[in-house]
Task: structure prediction
Amino acid sequence: MKQQTQNQSKQYYFKNGNKKVSKKIADALEELSEDGKLTPIEVVDAARDITHPLHSYFEWDNSRAAELYRLAQARMLINQVEVILNVDGQETRFEKYVNVSLGEGARSYITIEKALSKEDYKKQIIATALAEAEYWQKKYLAYSELSPIFKSIKQTRNKLKGGKT
Result:
């Protein structure tokens, strides 16, 4: 991978979108990682100061933060449950619950069995899987050793979208 020179300005983006990370936020994180390492504890400790640029990225109302954390724990719990299903004569482990859109902004976890039985849910899961594969590809694009996998992702994307491989 080609290295940037010191005088080139870097641009940072948030994952899952094209929203740029502000220079203020990027600089604050860079300052905290002077030695090239950064821990969540260091970030939170710095952000406790109300004047710190990272302060607004955190929930400081402890009651609200506790409730949000419990919701995150519930999501983690739901995502940990697996079920063994017979697919093409082979027993395979799958996540028991998958997250889908119910329409009008509502989301819910449904069982894998329900997701497989309804075409709309199945299409959503396949679209999510493809998006995750493409995200993974972006993350590891610098590693040419993985190019056969990248090629398969592209072929699958084209096949699903009705294009050529």
About this structure: DSSP finds six helices and four strands in the chain. Confidence is low (pLDDT under 50) at residues 1-5. The longest strand covers residues 97-103. Residues 119-140 form the longest helix (22 residues).
